[in-house]
Amino acid sequence: MRRDSRLSVALHALLHIEEQGKPVTSEMLGERMKTNPVALRRTLAGLRDAGIVSAAKGHGGGWIVARDLRTVSVGDVYSALGCANLFVIGPHDEEARCPLEQAVDREVARALDEAEALLLKRLQGVKVRSIIDEAWTRKKARHGHA
Question: Which domains does the chain have, with CATH numbers?
Answer without folding.
Answer: 6-142 (1.10.10.10)
